Amino acid sequence: MTAFALDDPVDRGSGLPRPGNLLRTAADSIPPSGLVLLAIVSVQLGAGFAKELFAALPPSAVVFLRITAGALIMGALVRPRLKGLSWRDWAMGIGFGVTLALMNLTFYEALSRLPMGIAVAIEFLGPLGVAVAASRRRIDLLWIGLAGAGVVLLAPWGQSASVSWVGIGFAMLAAVGWAGYVILSAAAGRRFPGTSGLSFAMIVSALVVAPVGVVSGGAELLQPELLLIGLGVGLLSSVIPYSLELQALRRMPKHVFGILMSLEPAVAALVGVMLLNEVLHTQQWAAIVCIVAASLGSTRRRKV
Predict the structure, then answer these.
(1) Which tens digit of pLDDT belongs to each residue from 172-225?
(2) pTM
(3) Where are the coiled-coil regions (predicted)?
(4) How many CB atoms lie within 10 A of CB 226?
């Protein structure tokens, strides 16, 4: 990829537009809200497939497969340059990578103990907090409150014996990580060109996760079928959604991004039903209605 001039939109040999330019044009033609929705669907499908891997591998080993696959793919495609980076750039990239690692480790531990809809609903408290902190309009508080009501309904505290308090604790830690991700990904997008900041952060994240992932997974990590599934999970859960989210964050306010991400519990619950046969109750469907209404209200209020 790096052999081509990024500022030359035409292949001079054939006279045709370069593939990279076509991809950028296609991405630019999608509204930022659409990019976020595509990212949500991708990451939740990846989480669903990852949860099925828990029968063969512990959560930390699945995280290792996911992040390593994503880091290898992004590193090969983007080839981030390390020369010329300031110490602030290094600090930003390393902080972003550590945040990604901790967010994924804690979320997968929660996912192994909770239904997908509940785990993601609790984790959503992170971006919801970012949205509240960034909001400057009263109408935004209405949508945030409606989304918050949906989160409460999706997380039936004490109403189900299947709800693990340890899982809830991991989900809360993942919420803190997700809040950090929203903030740091936007900052990395301003400091690094294209998706090089993401690629740098994923490499750091893979190095952070490697010790615990390799020790917990052991020889099982060498099974070809598990490696193949891990590659797919890495694409769906890391490469595709992170790239789409970074592009969206460059073109929309952080608080609108945070509100749009309220669709995560709804999509997670639906994926849980279709892929994992996790039954939804009436209360959970009511939560989905609240969250979807909050997302629609925020996007109709402002053109992004």
Answers:
(1) 899 899 888 888 877 776 777 666 777 788 889 999 999 999 998 888 888 888
(2) 0.77
(3) none
(4) 18
Distance CA 132, CA 144 (A): 7
- In 3D space, the residue among 133, 129, 229 whose CA is nearest the CA of residue 174 turns out to be 129
Question: Which residue shows structure tokens 């509240």?
Answer: 132
Between CA 264 and CA 116 the distance in angstroms is 10
State what percent of residues in the chain have pLDDT above 70.
Answer: 78
Look-up: residue for tokens 């598990």?
Answer: 226
The tokens for 271 are 């994926």
Q: Over the Cα atoms of the chain, what is R_g?
A: 19
List 10's β-bridge partners, or say none.
Answer: 17
